[in-house]
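Appendix B. One record, verbatim.
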Amino acid sequence: MDFNLMLDALEGVAREKGVPIETILDALANAFVSAYKRTPGAAEEARVTIDVDSGEITVYGQELDEDGNVVREWVDTPEDFGRIAVQTAKQVITQRLRDAKREQVFDLYDGREGDLVTGIVQSSDHRYAMLDLGNAEAIMPGSERIPYERLERGNRIKAYILEVRGEGKGPQIVVSRSHPEFIRSLFELEVPELVDGDVEIRAIAREPGHRTKIAVLSHDPNVDPVGACVGARGSRVRQVVNELRGEKVDIVEWREDTRAFISEALSPARVKEVRLDEEEKVATVIVPDHQLSLAIGKEGQNARLAARLTGYKIDIRSESQDLGLEVDEETGLPVAVDADEEVAAPPPADVAAAAEDAVEAAAEAVTEAPVAVSADDAVAATEVEVPAEVAEEVDDAIAAATGTPEEDTELEEDDDVDTPGIEEDPAV
């Protein structure tokens, strides 16, 4: 049988599909065996050989023993076998080509988890999106998409290979755009220092579609890690943000000192103090009153991302809250005191007690003044001199209780202290 024309066609298919010709010939031989067994009087076992040079097909019937060894073999090529073989083999060859292609794709992508690929959107709905990678198809489940991102057919996008599954129907390449490591892959594409090892991304915290924080560290003292990732005039980080469809990206420097790192992680807010509980992994952060809302972020987003980035539970307080003052829940600023308010807030207990003691001491000093025995003495007795240390103690106590500066309550040196008048003795 002249089989040269079919061989030429098979070689063309092999080149087009990228499958070795030997694989196709093996599939063809198996198809011929299946076709032979369907012919009347065929042996239970058989093998087929194909002469590539002449295109001749030879069928050998086989007899096997109990152990499956061939004990007898004979040529048993049916008449007009070429026509039967071609009709039967078409479907089998097509299937084997698909299987060979799937195996080739699996071998190509197996072990590439974590790589960045570029694909064209073929279809998209709420369940998943299909991407054409050129030599394979990838699936992006709805859970791995950026929330609210619209993927139109024909859009060219980048994705992160999450998993390569070798399933019965062929390999399945699962990709993601919401995974935190997708951010790392995008920056490695734009920042050569990350690939060279001069700069390292130590931690990533992400809320897909909204905001991402990354902590970077430099292994070269001459390289600024934040500047390397930002690029000249923000060119590098801008490319990443464009691929993320406008998702905000904060780049902070990794610090070995935990307090300094937590302060960095809460940027752009400024931090005044960080108190750590190493056992509970809790950090209490004190910020200026006007920085509280910035430190917390919209719906607590900045604080959440900083906590994920550092691994600490973060409790953010304003300075006024830390001092125990009443503050507005929304702004974090102290509640203003009404100037017309008649009833003042009571002073702290310790301040009030000190004021009472000072007043009592002043009263004792007054009552210990000498009693007048004459008219002249009575006039002199109306001018009782209070000891200087007692007067200062009273001034300090009044200032602490009322919140009035000391200079507003100081007694002038020339002022007299009014004391209760002494009635004139009728006998004098």
